[in-house]
Amino acid sequence: MLKNTLAAAISHTLLIPVLAFAHGSASTSGNVGEAREIQFPDTANHMTLVVDLHTHSVFSDGHVWPRIRVGEAIRDGLDAMAVTEHLEYQPHIEDIPHPDRNRSYQETMMSVPEGEDLLIIAGSEITRRPPHGHMNAVFIEDANELFSVPGNAADWDTASFGAAARNWPAENAVDAANEQGAFVFWNHSWSDFDNAKTVITDFHRQATLDGKLHGIEIANGSTYSPESFQIALDHGLTPVGVSDVHNLIDWDHEPHNGGHRPVNLVFT
């Protein structure tokens, strides 16, 4: 029920990115009751959910097992999170071959301790070169339908796999995500431009008009993009803020020094 409510809230743009720039059964290391929870009050008419829709683990180019992501999320007081592995970029494929691209989601789900109400959202990152760029698809049903390579994906090395996967049109991946009822958003769009200033492309404009692109990151890690925020306002896209964490949250955002990951507040 909460999953359906959260998906509906996000799709109706009741979603506020919150940034914090640090000075720079799951494990829950650290002091119990430590003052690192990201807390925001409910409003008079809505419950406030704290959400991170873009993280990574060793099942793509992250450096930790999904269990660590769960432990971090619990310590940060998140209500929901997604581990969104790159579909086409698999630098650990020779060490961790996984022909079923739902493995990361399954491992994350199994890592939530009994009694915790952390919601794990299924998602993947469609990883293409400009002009398509990277896009997250969350609330998906089967990640395997969002990419296509001949043969067994586990038989490829990283470079060959990436080249083969990119031969499948990005439009097909976006269509497949939408067929599953996904919420699709454009990731760190500024990285697609030499001057780091986002301009909406023909592809993203058409995907938005077709109702297949629903949001755009305006905050990713320690970066905020006013141009992306303006695109969200101009084109009716949901503004999204995420950690996109690959290392440890404690390394990247230093909660012990008062920092926290960028998150979204979902009012439901």
What would your notes on this structure say?
- The chain is α/β, with parallel strands linked by helices.
- The chain contains 8 helices and 10 strands.
- The radius of gyration is 18 Å and the shape is globular.
Question: How is this structure best summarized?
Answer:
The protein has 268 residues and is an alpha/beta fold. It has eight helices and ten strands. The longest helix is centred in the first third of the chain and has 11 residues, at 66-76.
Helix share bin: 25-40%
Number of helical stretches of at least 4 residues = 8
What is the CATH class name?
A: Alpha Beta
| The CATH homologous superfamily | Metal-dependent hydrolases
Computed Rg = 18 Å
Structural class: alpha/beta
Assign an overall shape: globular
Spans of at least 5 consecutive residues whose pLDDT stays below 50 are 20-30
N-to-C span: 12 Å
Number of domains: 1
CATH architecture: Alpha-Beta Barrel
Write the element-wise H/E pattern from the N-terminal end onward. HEEHEHEEHHEHEEHEHE
Give keywords.
268 residues, 8 helices, alpha/beta, TIM Barrel, 10-stranded mixed beta sheet, globular
Chart the SSEs and their pairings.
Blueprint: H1 2-11, E1 15-18, E2 48-52, H2 66-76, E3 80-86, H3 103-110, E4 119-127, E5 134-138, H4 158-165, H5 170-179, E6 183-186, H6 202-209, E7 215-220, E8 223-224, H7 226-235, E9 238-242, H8 249-253, E10 263-267
Parallel strand pairs: 2-3, 3-4, 6-7, 7-9
Antiparallel strand pairs: 1-10, 2-10, 4-5, 5-6, 7-8
